[in-house]
Inverse folding.
């Protein structure tokens, strides 16, 4: 039966999406993933590219990011994209590179970030519940079509619930780790 492996694949995608979303949420340390997915309107707005496609991003020290564009003509557009981002960063152009100094997070900013992480986590938990409900609906349809016995139906439903619980625990673990990252000074 393909229901269980397919269900697990969907849940893995949800977990991966959560991890990807949380990468861009700032913690106390400089990390390239904070800005690598910023969209830059490059070459006079002709193309929208992610920052990581236009440059290398390096960490210098605990609170400084250095952006080195592959094409120096994109430096102004990259600077504009960083300024427009919701991260509230102040880029400084130095020759052919851009320096971003990350100010230390205040307690208030940490709490806001924690709420954003919580919202992300809750959204993914809802996605998991929706996936579970879809699979249960398919199981019920198979049972009603006499393709499953009652015992098979109950066994599958129990397995689905157990997998759902396992993935909810994974999400909770990811949340705890991110929360700890954000709150540690």
């Amino acid at each position: 039966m393909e229901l269980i492996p397919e269900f697990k694949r969907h849940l893995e995608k949800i977990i991966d999406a959560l991890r990807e979303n949380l990468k861009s949420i700032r913690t106390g340390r400089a990390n390239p993933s904070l800005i690598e997915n910023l969209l830059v309107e490059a070459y006079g707005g002709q193309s929208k590219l992610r920052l990581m496609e236009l440059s290398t991003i390096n960490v210098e020290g605990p609170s400084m990011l250095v952006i080195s564009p592959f094409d120096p003509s994109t430096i102004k557009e990259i600077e504009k994209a960083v300024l427009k981002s919701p991260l509230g960063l102040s880029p400084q152009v130095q020759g052919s590179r851009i320096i971003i100094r990350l100010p230390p997070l205040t307690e208030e900013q940490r709490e806001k970030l924690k709420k954003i992480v919580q919202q992300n986590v809750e959204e993914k938990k809802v996605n998991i519940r929706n996936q579970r409900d879809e699979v249960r609906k398919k199981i019920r349809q198979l049972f009603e079509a006499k393709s499953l016995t009652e015992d098979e139906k109950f066994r599958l439903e129990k397995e689905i619930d157990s997998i759902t619980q396992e993935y909810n625990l994974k999400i909770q673990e990811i949340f705890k780790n991110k929360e700890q990252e954000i709150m540690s000074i």
In short: The chain has five helices and six strands. Strands lie at 39-42, 47-50, 55-59, 64-69, 91-94, 97-101. The longest strand covers residues 64-69.
